[in-house]
Amino acid sequence: MSSTYSTNLALELIGAGEQAGNWGSTTNTNLGTLLEQAISGYTTQACTGGTDTLTMTNGASATARNMFLELTGTGGGSLVVPANKKLYFIYNNTSSAITVKVTTGVSVPAAAKIVLVSNGTDIITATNYMTGATFPSPTLTGTPVAPTAAPGTNTTQVATTAFVTAGLAAAYPVGAIFLSTVSTNPSTLLGFGTWVAYGTGRMLISADATYTAGSTGGSATTTLITANLPSHTHSFSATTGSMSANATHNHNLLGSSYHYVADGGQNQGGASSNPFTPGSTTYGDVTSTANIDHTHSVSGTTGGTGSGTAATTISPYIAVYMWNRTV
Length: 327
Hints:
alpha/beta
């Protein structure tokens, strides 16, 4: 009976009664070379950027039997390993991703280190789960995925993009107002919701029973009318010219007025150059030379002022863009 070889590591299996005197050599090769390669072997493999193929040589040293393969060279392309069930530690020490495969395989990014296993048909990742592991300041590449925490979680658990987006959406529900000094629509900034420009040209006021949410009113300017002014008076005074006793002076009078002198008579105490008839509607000149005791009453209105131009009533403000989330 001739020697056979193990299925996966291709170790030589000596047949009964064979290799008399050579057992030591064969056993040493199996244990000292081949098993050592499979358990702790570290070797480099140049990659050309095309398809590079490894073989598993029966009973002899072979690159594919090594536990740890450091890939060097150009990078890119693929590395085909034998259809043996075996574990591989791969270090892609090139500048391009390399696919390690039997029929199908796994793309190993440049500079990545990964544990792979061959099931005889495909290369798959050897592990995708760890618990309780500590990775001091790891650098993640690609698109790492993590579980999304429940809304409101406040722990040191990693926050995924889904958790962050849900938190922002809760902070800005439908009906929320978003303020900004830039005109970018919040849907672009936040990644959710439908937002429309809101309240252009208006300031905000806190809602209550008088000012219901969403109602509008007010004006930047106000035109006042007389009824809006506070009650007030205007004072003015006037002085007639002085008149000495027995002075001759004229009064231009409306015919229906009366001129009273000291003795109670009307138009008495002196000659009248133009007497008038009480109740007439014409002016007359009365010339008095008597010692007249009389007063002058003065009445009238002050001159008008003001233009009626609308007054600015707007409060101090700062302009921002406002958006309302509708969906």
